[in-house]
Each structure stands twice: as C-alpha cells, then as structure tokens.
Amino acid sequence: MNRTPILSKKPETGPDGKLTQHGRQELSRAVFASMREDLFPEAQMRLAQKLQEWTDKSDFPAASILYPTVSKFLQTTQYDEGWRQCFKVLDFANTRKSGFRLLTLANTIVPNLVPAGDKAHVFNITGSTATVAFDKYGAALEWDKTLIEDDEWVQLEDIIFSFRAEMMNHMAQVHYDLLEAAGDAKVAITWQLPEPAALANTVETYTANRDSETINLGAQTMLLANRNKGYGVSASSNLILLSPLQLRKRARKALNLLLQAVTNSTTNIDYNITLVTTMMLTTTNAWRLILPGGKLQTGIRMNLEELKDVDILARSEIQADWMRFGAAVGDSDQIETLATA
To answer: How do residues 40-93 score in pLDDT, each as one tens digit?
Structure first.
C-alpha cells in the first residue's frame, strides 16, 4: 500500500547544523501527519489489516539528520486492530454531525415476480432508530527543547511511538468493551457434548471436539437469528471467533479438528470462521462469536486535531491531539458468548 513519506526533504538547518525554528515546525508537522494517517485509516483500505511500519528507508534523503534512526522506523509494530474486523467503520470526518443513527428495520422486503407491464411493489421502510454520539478523546505530549537542539531523534521517536501506541490501544479497548458488554447481556451457549456422545474424555481430541461442536451451534444460532434482517446473511457468511490470548491455542485446535484422521479430511467446523485474538478482553474463559458489520458500527468524526504550545517555565514543547468517534452494538443477535467448560 502506498504510504505518505514522513519527510520528503531534509528539515531546514542553520550554519551550525542545528534545526532552525522553521525546521522544527517541518519535523513536527511531518511526524504528526504520519501519526494521524495511521490512527485513523480509511475504512475500506484498513479493515482486517495490521498497521505496518511507520515509514521505510526511501523516505529519508541520504544526507538527512534523521538517517541514523532509520532502523528504528523499520521495525514493524502490529497494533491490536482485530476490532476493525468486527465493526463497520464509517467516515464522518468531513461532516458537521454530532453523531450517527442506527436504523433497525421492522418489516420484511420480499421481491416478487413482476409480469411485463406491471410495476414492482413498493415497500415502506419502518423501524426504530438510535443515535450514537461522537465522544471526544484527547492526550498531550511534552518534550524538552534540548531533544531537538541536541539531535536526540531516537528519544523523540520513542516518546512519539509511546503516545501513538496508547492512542491505538485506547481506541481498540473502547470497541472490545462494547463487544464484551453485549455478549455478557445474553445467556451463553453452553459447552456442548462431544460427537459421538460416547467419546471418552481421555481421548486426545475430546476437548477440541466439544469446542468445535459449541462453535458450530453458536454459528447456527447466529445465522438463523440474522437471516431476515437485511444483512445479506447466508450459510457461508464469514463469522469472527474473538478469542482471548489465553484460549488461542485451544481455539486453533477446535477450528482445525478433522472429521477423520485421514489425509484431505474436512474439518469438524461446518461454517466459515475467522479467528481473531486479542489481549484486551476481561473475560478470558470464553469466546465471542460475532457476525461482523450490520449494526456493529463505529463512526470517526474527527481525525487527530493538533494543538501546539510552549511551556516557557519548563523550556519544553507541548502538543495536544484530540479526536472524536462513536461506536455502538445495535443488534445483540450479532454476538454469541461460547462457554468453554
């Protein structure tokens, strides 16, 4: 994917090789513009993707004073972006909205055969709406002026990296909390008996067998509950198995369990399941099965807004960044909690 370079040219320096005031402004604008791009990627380009490295070596001219720190920028950092695979991400950055509305249809639209010369039946759209407000989130960075004056780019990069990581984690946590709250409000699907029922608990695949049967029942329950809601659901629809890190190995065994111990055997899972693992769930002894999109929506109203100031008493530079977004789970039928014991 094409990325915007952090710096297209060397920041302005004085005769002594130090950054001028204009050069410091160039650096600050470039760094935080890159950070905003990563924090709020366009939904259609970033769903189901991990954030890639901040930049690459070609972004820095050979004579750049930042060139010695290129190796740090080349480190690939994978933030927790699993929530994006569950939610439909809507872009409201260029609007004046204070929130967005979720519409729940109450009627069923059934296409009918229309003979030549006749007209298609017109269905009235009815249902209820709920408004999701865009909340404001913010944080600030402060760094000593000597970091810039002494060309301490590694330390400055560490400060900025930590800030961006915390912003990404906070945004992810908000969405995982919503999914957990919605799942906890429903009765969990119990841990199912093995198939065949006579399978002894001493058999190596006993736990994986019960887990896969539980996942199958959860998928069946979810698809049947959502088949007439306008989500475009079919028996082959992709579902997300959201797993805490503590259960990832067990989830993989259940998803890969074979019907028969022979080459080319199909798996015991009857549905199209994608495993997403996170360390941000409070409940670590259950899975969440999710039908992505639909009424699981998040709207981004404002990308990071950058405000600057100088603390003359501390001789430091301050940059505060603000953002606004809102998220909601509008249909609890899109989430099932799967017990593991």
So the answer is: 444 333 333 332 333 344 444 444 444 444 334 434 456 788 999 999 999 898
Closest CA to 325 of 84, 33, 99: 99
In the three-class reduction of DSSP (H, G, I as helix; E, B as strand; rest coil), residue 210 is classed as helix
Residue ranges making up the domain that contains 207: 185-296+333-339
For residue 53, tell me if it sits in a domain: no
Distance, CA of 67 to CA of 60 (rounded, Å) = 6
Closest to 228 (Cα-Cα) out of 328, 106, 114: 106
- Sheet with 335-339, strands from edge to edge, namely 272-278, 238-244, 286-290, 335-339
Low-confidence stretches of the chain (pLDDT beneath 50): 1-8, 38-76, 106-108, 125
- The answer to whether 233 touches 223, Cβ cutoff 8 Å, is yes
> CB 324: neighbour CB atoms within 10 A?
20
In the beta sheet, which residues pair with residue 337?
288
The pair of structure tokens assigned to 292 is: 């992505």
In a domain, 2, yes or no: no
Number of domains in the chain: 1
Q: How far apart are CA 34 and CA 7, in angstroms?
A: 10
**CB-CB neighbours of 281 under 10 Å:** 22
Residue where the block lists tokens 């890639």 = 52
- pLDDT, residue 59, reads 43
The Cα 184–Cα 108 span in angstroms is 29
Closest residue by Cα to residue 330 from 84, 135, 101, 47: 101
| 298: β partners | 89, 327
Q: What does the pLDDT read at residue 313?
A: 87
The pLDDT tens digits for 148-182 are 777 676 676 677 777 777 878 888 999 999 999 99
- 259 within domain boundaries: yes
Q: Is residue 254 part of a domain?
A: yes
Note the Cα 114 to chain centre separation in Å.
43
Q: State both tokens at 47.
A: 């769903």
Phi, psi of 265 (to 5 degrees): -70, 145
